[in-house]
């Protein structure tokens, strides 16, 4: 039995993964435990987690009701983490991956199930130098979870293109906007969720994963969107980590609005959008490859549009709801990203200008400190 502690309101929670960097070498530094300890000693009320990698600190909001409330919580945590990192001579890095760090030099955190994942997945598990944003939105009934998840899958490329920030890997330009997306799906429990039609189908699936020993090895399933039964939420894990709170706020606002929009469609008895599995998979790849230049499939009849045109229409459609939810200004930041460029574009432009990732790393760090 998969428990789901339903939420009466569309509450909001955000997890933001950031990494520690040596500002001289621009390489990752595995001192997350030290940073977390320093922050907790000074600010025990701030919720931080050590993540899969020993170079990563995860900033976690409490249960919030609006995007501005969640962003304000993250800003307080970010300032505390910055101060702790500065005291150790380190800076913070927010992106989907690092463009040249050698994954073989980066240990995992001291948590049992992390070492089990590495033991099981070996080469691919060791490569997970990646960071993302996880947005939780409260759902009032477990039977709504999978219809909403399946509808959200139709907007997968929109959320990914907006936040894509991982073009470099092992010193090269991969040609992808989000190489993180391609890396993460190599894990056997990660990637696109199956489009279950009911909560009971999800329970049958998880029962099989338990019987086969999969969950014993990994702790949970790491789908791009998944139920978080303990919290009574849908957890959207599509987005690359961003280099700044402004772009994070845009992605979280779009996510919050989409979930509530689909939930209200259910209230009205309307049919939620869906796409064939193969279209969902193709859209994911197109967004990872082309980012904001992606041409995405928008219907079961295989119609296509530029993702930027789709995003503009979404902002217009969801703006009245965003006002109600208190995130109108944050939702409008989606348009700012379209106009000024996403993280992958800024990093790639600097790499092409200088023939080195150092200027891209420096500029991305600077964005965190503005």
TrEMBL record:
Gene3D superfamilies assigned: 3.30.590.20
GO MF annotation list: ATP binding; glutamate-cysteine ligase activity
BP GO annotations: modified amino acid biosynthetic process
Entry EC number(s): 6.3.2.2
The reaction(s) this protein catalyses: L-cysteine + L-glutamate + ATP = gamma-L-glutamyl-L-cysteine + ADP + phosphate + H(+)
Keywords: ATP-binding, Ligase, Nucleotide-binding
Origin superkingdom: Bacteria
Pfam families xref list: GCS2 (PF04107)
Function comment: ATP-dependent carboxylate-amine ligase which exhibits weak glutamate--cysteine ligase activity.
Family indicated by similarity: Belongs to the glutamate--cysteine ligase type 2 family. YbdK subfamily.
Protein name stated in the entry: Putative glutamate--cysteine ligase 2
